[in-house]
Amino acid sequence: YFCLFSDEAAIISGTKLAKQVLKEVQRDVESWISCGNKRPHLTVILVGDNPASHIYVRNKVKAAAAVGISSEVILKPKYISQEELLDMTLKLNKDSAVSGVLVQLPLPDHIDERTVCNAIAPEKDVDGFHIINIGRLCLDQPSVIPATAAAVWEIIKRTGIQTFGKNIVVAGRSKNVGMPISMLLHTDGEHERPGGDATVTIAHRHTPKEQLKIHTQLADIVIVAAGNVVSTTKKQCLKPKKKSLESIGGTTWYFMYFTK
């Protein structure tokens, strides 16, 4: 993740922050087990041979091991039926030895991802994609938050970026990233699940470039959660915005986008 300040670029290391979080989670897991509880266990279902999915799953298993969480990966061929996948998910829901279930996305075209995500028990829904978890997120209630949105929110909190009363543009409206980020940022900071109290504008692929330029130039914070608008946002927003901020004075502008 990068944050660009009004006159110079400052890099916020997601890797460094992630290491801090992992240490904290490791301590929490150790404390949980020392109190007589069973070790948390993650089961991942990986369908097909998508190279990126295999890398993501490998990284998740590695991170789980680093904090003391046991895990297993169930590999299934891309031609698995939706019924078989749902049956497997329901069995994991009932398995008391399994603390969390994750079905790696994307899935083959013949399988409906929303149906599969909603088949996972909400309390075991590691990705936070179940309709109940998304609904609780929208109602400012504690829930499992999708990982990327949670990471953005954690970066904002840990680096002291102020969102209260700020104008924020989120470029991207995906149900797994852009939407939950927007929900976290605009909701009430005094509610059960505190939000960012910001005024949020959501842009997407059908937002005209000139409108995108207007919105981003008015924004205090720009979060890009869609690869196809990164270059456009950088070209039409960064330089003009820096000039306008210099004329306003005393304002810090943040631009965040995701890198692999």
Automatic annotation (TrEMBL):
Residues 12-127 form the Tetrahydrofolate dehydrogenase/cyclohydrolase catalytic domain. InterPro entries: Aminoacid_DH-like_N_sf, NAD(P)-bd_dom_sf, THF_DH/CycHdrlase, THF_DH/CycHdrlase_cat_dom, THF_DH/CycHdrlase_NAD-bd_dom. GO terms for biological process: tetrahydrofolate interconversion. SUPFAM superfamilies: Aminoacid dehydrogenase-like, N-terminal domain, NAD(P)-binding Rossmann-fold domains. It comes from the Eukaryota. One of its GO terms (cellular component) is mitochondrion. The keyword Kinase does not apply. One of its GO terms (molecular function) is methylenetetrahydrofolate dehydrogenase (NADP+) activity. It catalyses: (6R)-5,10-methenyltetrahydrofolate + H2O = (6R)-10-formyltetrahydrofolate + H(+). It is an enzyme of class 3 (hydrolase). Residues 146-230 form the Tetrahydrofolate dehydrogenase/cyclohydrolase NAD(P)-binding domain. Keywords: Hydrolase, Multifunctional enzyme, One-carbon metabolism, Oxidoreductase. The keyword DNA damage does not apply. Its EC number is 3.5.4.9. It holds the Pfam family THF_DHG_CYH. Homodimer. This is methenyltetrahydrofolate cyclohydrolase.
